[in-house]
Each structure stands twice: as C-alpha cells, then as structure tokens.
Amino acid sequence: MIDLHCHILPGIDDGPKTVKESIAMAEEAVRQGITHILCTPHHNQRFSNEKSDVLVAVEDLQKELDRQSILLTLFEGQEVRISRNLIDEINSDKILFADVTDRYLLAELPTNNIPEYTESLFYELRQMGIVPIIVHPERNRGFQENPNLLLPYLNMGCLAQLTAPSIAGVYGKQIKKLSEELVQNRLVQMIASDAHSRKDRDFYMEKAYSIVEKKFGPTVIEEMDQVTRDIINGEQVYAKDFRPIV
Ligand SMILES: [Fe+2]
C-alpha cells in the first residue's frame, strides 16, 4: 500500500514529537502492509513547514529508517490549507506536491465550511494543470451537510481522498456511514491514513482496505491502489463513475 497522507515527520507539526515515535509509526505502517509514505506535514494551518525544511526532515528520517533496516520509502509532500494566496505561493516555489511533476496537490479545507473562493481557486489551479486532491471531505462540515457538493469539483478534474480511520469508525457512526456512501458513489478515489501518532491517530489502513473490499468488492480496492501509484508517479488520474448520493 502507498499512504498518500501521513504526519510521520518528527517535531514539525502535530505529528510525532521524537524520532523514536516516528520509528514506532513506521514499524506499524510496515506491519499494515504500507511500503511508501508521502510525508505531508501541515502547511498554512497552525504550522508553516516550508518546502526546504520538509525536504531535510524527510531525508533525515529516511536515513534513520535505512539505518534500522525498516523497509519503508518516504516521499516529501505537504498538506496545504487553502488560502487566497496559494497561487502566489506555488509561483514562488513554496509548495510541495504529491509527485515530482508538481501535478497533484493535497488541499485541506477548514473544518467548519467550504470557503466561497474554493471553486474559483480550484478552477484556476486546474487551468495551471494542477489537480487539487481534497483531503478528508467527510470531516468537513460543508461536505457532511451535502456530500454532493463534491460533484462540481470532481467534474472539474479534482480528486478526493478519504481518511482511513473515518471508514474504520474512529470518528463515530455518522462519519463512517458518510464514508461508506462516498466510496459507494465513487465520490472519493483513494484512502490514506492521515496518521499522526500510534496513540490517538493511528493508520487504520489495513482495516479500511478490508472494510471497502468486503462491502464494495476487490475491484474498488484495486482501483484505489492504482490511483495512489499513479498519483505518486505523476500519471494522469481521472475520477470516474462518480454519481450523486440520493
Ligand atoms: Fe493531515
């Protein structure tokens, strides 16, 4: 499995505080069958985590994993809280994408709403050839109230990423139910952990994949798995067969 959203880097956001905690997370990731992790510290939320700092942190942690013979490959990324000056930040090379071709951008919306400028911002990004990946829509109040608000974004070529613990039931029955509806209606194209620690925000990837496989069949999981590979390789990915929840 490839995990495209994980706060595993030590001491730079609300993830692990020490290298030891990062290693414990890495060991659990490997146990769950994860082979590659996109390290996505918060950017523009409570933490800034500049591109240059993330690159160094990823290199340091990868060296430690290699030293301890833990078979996990790290890639550098960011979970970018959207803002009106995102385009300026991209143009001044401050943003890390999910892939080396700078196509896929992990975009986080605020928890309580969908800002009114989101659609025009994403449209502008699409014009630049960038594909925003909306992370954990199931935890945003706007999409919770009306998940079909994802449709215009998918129609414009954006993607959406479900968080594994949401479908595993960690955030309660309502979010689990919504997560299942999102998968059933193909409104999300991939699952990622958004893991922060072993203690309270663990991976749940094994459990989430198994739930999806049991409920929706192995093809859905195979497709999601392929999407994560294509994203990391910078290949074209389109959301397909998505439909409104009725
Ligand atoms: Fe996150």
From TrEMBL:
Keywords: Hydrolase, Protein phosphatase
UniProt keyword annotation of Hydrolase present: yes
Enzyme Commission identifier(s): 3.1.3.48
InterPro entries with a match to the protein in the record: Caps_polysacc_synth_CpsB/CapC (IPR016667), Pol/histidinol_Pase-like (IPR016195)
Catalytic reaction equation(s): O-phospho-L-tyrosyl-[protein] + H2O = L-tyrosyl-[protein] + phosphate
Keyword ATP-binding included in the entry's annotation: no
Family: Belongs to the metallo-dependent hydrolases superfamily. CpsB/CapC family.
Protein name (record): Tyrosine-protein phosphatase
